[in-house]
Amino acid sequence: MLEISDLSVGFSREGRFARVIPGLSYSLRRGETLGIVGESGSGKSVHALALLGLLPQPPGKVLGGQAIFRGEDLLTVPEARLRELRGGQIGVVFQDPMTALNPVLTVGRQIAEPLMRHKGMTRRQALDRATDLLALVGIRDAARRLSQFPHEFSGGMRQRVMIAIAISCEPALLIADEPTTALDVTVQGQILDLMAELRERLGMTMIWITHDMGVVAGIADTIQVMYAGRTMERGPVEAVFASPRSAYTWGLLQSLPHGARPPGGRLHQIPGQPPDMFNLPPGDPFAPRNPFATERCHVEAPPLRQVEGSVPGHLAAAWYDLPALLERAR
Amino acid sequence: MNPPLLSVRDLRRTYRSRAGLFGSGLVTRAVDGVSFEMTAGETLGLVGESGSGKSTTGRLVMGLEEPDGGNVVFAGTDLTAMTPAQRKPFRRRMQIVFQDPYAALNPRMRVGDFVAEPLLVHDVGGGAAERRDRVAELFRTVGLDPAFMQRFPHEFSGGQRQRVGIARAIALQPEFLVADEPITALDVSIQAQIVNLFQDLQERLGLALLFIAHDLSMVRYLCTRVAVMLRGRIVEAGPVEAVFADARHPYTRALLSAVPIPDPVRERGRKRLPFDAGGYTFPPGAALRDLGSGHLVLDGA
Predict the structure, then answer these.
(1) Is there a domain that residue B251 lies in?
(2) pLDDT tens across B233-244, in order?
(3) What are the angstrom distances between the C-alpha of B289 and each of A38, B47, B231?
(4) ipTM
(5) Parent domain of A306
(6) Is B267 close to A217, i.e. CB distance below 8 A?
(7) Is pLDDT above 80 for A323?
(8) Fewest CB atoms within 10 A around its CB: which of A89, A141, A153, A210?
(9) If you average pLDDT over residues B241-268, what whole number do you get?
(10) CATH number of the domain bearing residue B172
């Protein structure tokens, strides 16, 4: 469905330049949901913007690589073709629906337009379909709300409108960047249920970018943990959550609270700060924050490779053997 | 039993949206009869979703907004009856930390001066040299290198900025701290650092902490008691484990059932309980009823 090879992205700031994604490769099967986890500077959002041709250039710049979607390279197709794919075969949802929706157009028109453009529907047909879509994403009184403007919707409702637009043309691929982060937990739950249902019904392939390990645990088949523009670990969610091999993945999972605090207890904390992409350390970028780092980690970046003894497709970039180190520490 | 450090009684705050072309505008009861108490050194989690009134409650307690009704009694003194001048000595003892540390910081002020400001305003900390030493000590307390005092906010990461905000909040050695979504804007790897810092500060300074958050797992971990708010009212409150293990109000249950669990096996087996927060009507005359050992639930549930 999607094959990304050696995607490389740079950023300039105040005369300085950083390779914020030094060379990212991964592929996605049809129907697969990939959960990408990362923090500030991880490259998780930048890589999505680059795929969609939405990277602000400058300061950003795609330096090289390929992203083959159904036989076409998203990084080199003409802008007009990319626009046709976006909102057609590729649906997009971002965190902040207010910036993505046009404030002066009714919600109905914004849902109907891609249907007319990509599916050749008449205005009437498109508006009927828009009503169905709003109902599908759980907006009540859908027919009446079509004639309203984005500011008349609450944040959660606007995000549902964005999702309705993103799925309107039954995309083969949906790219969602923190789509539920700004929402209340109960609304997030409804949207996650809805996405699972749509995936079943439409056989949609999804890239779900988030910082929430709980969301990934529920929605994704595959998890990809990114740090400083690199994939630190990737694999089937069950395998990665059960036995993480990157100290970063392990640290993220450990730092989450589980139940009540034991007396005098403290949360596990990852020391230090998120990486400064303009001033990265040599070697493994996580090494300065990694209590398990070896000498080699500080000088040479580890390749992403199959984890010995784990399921096929469980990959990690680590010079150290985390399970053995954890065993010794115990 | 210890006398409460803070006693909030029947607090109310109503917002009227400006009258439109037709009709007389909308009345929102942001906080609608909230009561709770906190003892010295205690941690109370205030949870609820957007529009629940939890942040407004924090602001009312701090006197950043005036209530339409009810009282805030701190250390035996009713603050709501006082003039701002009369309140000033109490402001030293009550501080607040906000969600967005960047918005709270003045971009043109060195962070050391920002932390020192409350010392100046309340005329404590002695001369300039003494004050500088005190600020350096505060930086060390919150885990920042005192060498950073000369820097500007943009030179800091989100987690470091939140540490600066906390250093300022504890500068006057308050007994009570409101933390309004203090970790929401932070990277996951930094959230645990800040939560641990709050615990350290509580142990060292004996701070009572009103922790306003929507992250229920973190509230369960950090707090001893929790109060759940829905549309301006507390629907359930009590010792954290009593509420989390045996939630009685349908809203609390729905909220707890919606928290994603970072474990693929358990997360996939979980069923979310539906609850229509907007359509829910409170039973007329409903009041919090004690189920025993301080576990309160709005009756009619």
Answers:
(1) yes
(2) 999 999 999 999
(3) 44, 19, 18
(4) 0.87
(5) 226-329
(6) yes
(7) yes
(8) A141
(9) 94
(10) 3.40.50.300
Domain that holds residue B193: 6-298
With CB atoms and an 8 Å threshold, state whether A40 touches B241. no
Average pLDDT over residues A139-157: 88
A57 and A143 share a domain? yes
Q: What angle do CA A227, A229, A231 make, to 5 degrees?
A: 60
Q: Which residue of chain A comes nearest to B48, CA vs CA?
A: A184
pLDDT at residue A19 is higher than 70: yes
Q: How many domains does chain A have?
A: 2
Q: Of the candidates A191, A220, A249, which is a domain's last residue?
A: A220
Residues of B in contact with A184 (CB under 8 A): 49-50, 214
d(CA B16, CA A202): 45
Phi, psi of B2 (to 5 degrees): -65, 145
Query: Chain B residues with CB inside 8 Å of A215's CB?
Result: 260
Chain B residues with a Cβ under 8 Å from any Cβ in chain A: 49-50, 157-160, 187-193, 195-196, 199, 214, 216-218, 220-222, 240-241, 244, 254-255, 257-268, 270, 272, 275, 277
* Residue A50 and residue A173 share a domain: yes
pLDDT at B12: 96
Residues 6+ apart with CB under 8 A from B13: B29, B30, B31, B53, B56, B60, B65, B67, B68
| Total domain count, chain B | 1
Is the residue at B77 inside a domain?
Answer: yes
Domain shared by A189 and A70, yes or no? yes
CB contact under 8 A, A273 and B159: yes
Instruction: Give the chain B residue whose CA is nearest to the CA of A37.
Output: B188
Nearest CA in chain B to A275: B157
* Contact yes or no for A267 and B160 at CB 8 A: no
Evaluate if residue B79 carries a pLDDT over 90.
yes
pLDDT greater than 80 at residue B278 = no
Q: Examine residue B1 and state whether it is found in any structural domain, yes or no.
A: no
Residue B33: both structure tokens together: 């009869």
A203 and A80 within one domain: yes
Residue A116's SS3 state is helix
pLDDT exceeds 70 at position B296? yes
